[in-house]
Specification:
This protein is an alpha/beta fold. The protein is built from 12 helices and 13 strands.
Length: 404
């Protein structure tokens, strides 16, 4: 769906601009046997809202994935995130497919609620039968409330306010799941990669201090692990003796440099990206994707990486690290807590049921993936991907037979 027109005296987009925008949606560059099933681009001339929805694969159920607002979001980026959701939902063994959406705008320069409502109106025909939304970068509970209100169906999104039966992501479901996966992985492979015998003796570095980073920090701190560095957009705080997470918590979710975690006065202030090269046992990226890449992988000193962020590591970087005995617990295994919690909300369950299901499913999946990885000398990502793909393939074949 491409909608570009003029109303109320608004300037009509030039043909050249339309072509430039369409050129960014080079769907053929990411089509494969798994999807995407639909790539939808929408535009609202009244607000200037430009958005994308990628529904990757719905063999297991409606496509599930958050809405992000970013000034440089692209259809290709949204597709990558949608594909990660396809694998994540399949591996978690819940009846959702993969999808994702994005609005291209500076989140600090727009009326986010206005943009979200405009986006909801444009994609309404696909919601919730083929797409179920959720919070993501620069989209929180208030925006999801507006999205659901515009669609007029509570199943349009998860991560809703409690008044709408929601289980907000701010409760820490994703970070809790990362902690569960990290703890189980540590128990199974710690000795093999020369980690301290006890998790309580491990030194942990966490990149990003928001919905995921804060909660994994609290989880690990409660287990006795030493959090030696935290960072956000504005900088890094580092203390080899450990950071008091209770004191640092007031600096989480920073929206300005003044409130950055670098200002929590618990250690040395370093540049934001210096966090990648710090000596530690476990590195947990919980910020943007592709931070561990060909240019940064050789600076990594951790022995285990647990991906709280989606698509945190590029394939070339992962190959290099695996060859150097660094184990990566992949995003779609470790950070599935959010989508498992979303499924419980979707079926009108409780917060207690959500955390119970997250712990059960992620422990079980992590144990299966790590066992196979050890026995077959494969990366955990390779094993997890095999499991997810097999489940989707079976569902696609079943659907195909049903049509015939």
């Amino acid at each position: 769906m491409i909608l570009m027109s003029a109303m109320d005296g608004k300037t009509v987009l030039s043909t050249k601009h339309v072509i430039e925008v369409l050129d960014q949606v080079n769907v053929s560059s990411f089509l494969d046997s798994w999807g995407p099933e639909e790539v939808i681009q929408v535009y609202d001339p009244n607000t200037g809202m430009q958005g994308f929805l990628v529904i990757d694969n719905t063999a297991l159920g409606p496509g599930k994935g958050g809405i992000r607002i970013s000034s440089n979001v692209t259809p290709l980026e949204v597709f990558g995130l949608a594909r990660a959701m396809t694998w994540k939902c399949a591996l978690a063994d819940i009846p959702f497919g993969g999808a994702k959406s994005g609005i291209r705008a500076d989140p600090y320069a727009i009326d986010k609620l206005q943009y979200i409502r405009a986006f909801a109106e444009k994609i309404a025909p696909s919601v919730p039968t083929r797409y179920v939304a959720a919070p993501d970068m620069n989209v929180g509970e208030k925006e999801i409330d507006a999205f659901v209100e515009t669609i007029g169906d509570r199943q349009a999104a998860t991560g809703k306010p409690a008044k709408l039966g929601g289980i907000p992501h701010e409760l820490g479901t994703t970070g809790f799941g990362v902690g569960v996966s990290l703890e189980k992985s540590y128990e199974m492979i710690g000795d093999l990669i020369d980690l301290p015998k006890d998790l309580a003796d491990a030194r942990v570095v966490i990149q990003g201090f928001g919905n995921v980073g804060l909660w994994i920090a609290k989880f690990l701190s409660n287990k006795g692990a030493k959090i030696i560095a935290l960072n956000d957009y504005w900088g890094t705080i580092y203390n080899k003796e450990g950071i008091d997470i209770d004191l640092a918590e007031s600096f989480a979710y920073a929206t300005s440099e003044r409130m950055s975690v670098k200002n929590c006065k618990q250690g040395a202030v370093l540049a934001r990206d210096a966090i990648l090269g710090l000596d530690c046992d476990i590195f947990v990226p919980c910020a943007v994707g592709n931070v561990i890449n060909e240019g940064t992988c050789q600076t990594i000193k951790a022995k285990m990486i647990v991906e709280g962020a989606n698509n945190a590591t590029t394939p070339i970087a992962e190959r290099y690290l695996f060859e150097n005995n660094v184990i990566i617990i992949p995003d779609f295994l470790a950070n599935a807590g959010g989508v498992i919690g979303s499924y419980v909300e979707y079926k009108n369950g409780t917060e207690e049921e959500a955390f119970s299901m997250i712990e059960t499913k992620i422990k079980k999946n992590t144990e299966r993936v790590i066992n196979d990885a050890i026995n077959r000398k494969l990366t955990p990502r390779q094993v997890a991907l095999e499991i997810a793909q097999q489940r989707i393939m079976d569902a696609m074949e079943k659907k195909s037979k049903g049509r015939n």
